[in-house]
Amino acid sequence: MIRARAPGRVNLIGDHVDYLGGAVLPMAVDLGTSIEGRRGGKTVALESDDEPGPLRLPLDVTDPAAAEPEWGRYVAGVVAEMAPTVGFVGRVSSDLPIGAGLSSSAALEVAVALALGFDGDPTDLARLTQRAEQRASGVPSGIMDQLVIGAATAGSALFIDCGTLDHHPVAMPDDLDVVVVHSGESRTLAGSGYATRRAEVEAALTGVDDGPITGWLDRIHPADVGAVADPVGRRRARHAVTEHRRVADFAAALVADDRVELGRLMAESHTSMRDDYEVSTPVVDALVDRLQARSGVWGARMTGGGFGGCVVALTEPGALDEGWAVHPAAGASVSAA
Ligand code: ADP
Ligand code: MG
Predict the structure, then answer these.
(1) CATH (residue range 2-172+329-336)
(2) Ligand closest to CA 109
């Protein structure tokens, strides 16, 4: 019997910069997805406690986006990328909220890869499952989710340089709660909005510096962004270069346990996502405002791709009685019994 488990994640700060080679600071959470089953045969056959329909895939699947039932696309993406020679029969279960922004899709992909016998380091695992997610969803998403899910350490967030994929844990204070609150707005337009933003920011940044993605946001300074002629591109670029710098400042503030500074950086990040990157919504903004005003809340910001979804807050212990109180968890694992 094989048992693979992969956590979900919440991003503390650094959104829409992973695909630009920027810095991000996500945290794996103590909610996750498990797959239990046996290797063997010539198909991948899975059922999920959370989604309808049995899934049965050939090992040589070629068009993951066409897989049925719909949730099988993510599994098919992994099978297509891994090209396993041995199949798997098993069951998926999860205590993660699905489709809420805690990256149940990446947790499923990573768990599937481990269940199928992926053999490699977390960076290779992240690259493979990122390609799987892109093929399954058609969204040109970055590598943050899959890398933190594979490489996180219990008790810490993970600082990732998405240009080099170098990463290191940043300890989270024990007495600081991380709370994820859903806005109630589902992320229906997220896919197309994501692709548009990515194209806009890449065009704007390329006009300033057409060098390699590694170190891109280090080489471009906030003052350089003024040279972008197109006002929309200028705003997109300003979000990217300032958000990238906020991540390093936020990691330093965590080490110093400077909670006022953490809150200030979260507020700045949210404003940047709202006004410059334009990926927030009035409902999400109102939730951020409400949470920021609560006593015992140090900071709150939209988290993830945007267009609805979740807000993350850092609080004194027990300050909020809503949402999911999540704890920094270890990355994915697999065991055989
Ligand atoms: P998020 O990753 O934020 O939870 P997504 O829309 O990216 O939201 O991914 C959710 C989709 O991933 C679901 O609609 C389903 O297709 C698939 N999925 C995630 N977890 C499971 C699960 N435990 N069982 C089956 N499908 C799942
Ligand atoms: Mg997802």
Answers:
(1) 3.30.230.10
(2) 1
Q: Does domain 177-326 have CATH number 3.40.50.2300?
A: no
Q: 190 falls in which pLDDT band (50, 70, 90)?
A: low
Among residues 145, 161, 177, 276, the one annotated as catalytic is 145
Ligand that comes closest to the CA of residue 71: 1
Say whether 145 is catalytic.
yes
Beta-carbon contacts of residue 182 (< 8 Å; ≥ 6 apart): 97, 100, 101, 309, 310, 323
Where do the structural domains in the chain lie, given as residue ranges? 2-172+329-336, 177-326
Give this prediction's pTM.
0.97
Give distance in angstroms: CA of 71 to centre of ligand 1.
Answer: 7
150, pLDDT greater than 90: yes
**126/216 Cα distance (integer angstroms):** 21
